Amino acid sequence: MSGGTDTITSSYYYSYNATVVRNTVTNSTDEVYNVLSSPLTTVSAGTFDSYQIRGRNPDGTYTDTYYSPETENIVKQVGFAANGTQESSMTLSNYGAWPYKSTIGLSVGGSTYNAIVGTDVSTTNVHQDGRSIIFTVSGTDTVTGKASIWIPLKANNTAIKVLVDTNSVSYTGSSNQTFYQITFTFPLSTHTVTVTYSNPSFLDQYLIPIVIGLVATAAVIILAAILLVWRSRKQPQPATFPQPPPSTPPTPAETPPSSQPPPPQSNNPS
Q: Which of 5, 15, 26, 203 falls 20 to 30 Å from 222 in CA-CA distance?
């Protein structure tokens, strides 16, 4: 990309003459810009993907500018004399650009409030589970990721906690009448970010688990009873045999004579 010609036209009005007198001055520039490379650039604000753009002036001086799409800004700029001696330098110390933004609804007490997720790198799978905002970030290894989350005050009832995968991350925060904004950084490449904004209610935290436990216990008891009934039906019954009919008792006529000896005879005469 090269420079062009700028034409400046000045108009003068004199109190004694209403005629417009024009004085035209032409300035010519011949500055040339080239994209030299796309390095990772590290400054106090972090490490970023960047484009190194060199602008060379007609007098031989030139400037290297490092622009990052993640910050949507220049992260570094260095000026050089014609002989290559560095004459000036500036770097980015902070930024608040969010090329990637998502809006997600948070349901609280029957109402829905919109939260905003802003990041400097690509985000996917942005969702919420009623207590946390969860999303995945991905980018070049070693690049500094940065996120800013706007959480509606009406959806926040606890101290906010940020996890990158399973690691707790510190953040800076501020608030207005509508949102609580938190900002934090994280290393890349790919991570899952969890921002917890709400504590479970007593019903969720205690009563529901108890009810679930009771239902599970009842289900186990019912299942055990069904198994016992099923097993009892599957067991074989003992074999049965026909019993002989009862014998008929003998009649008196058929009673056999007694085998006892007769009583002794008396020897006394009558």
A: 203
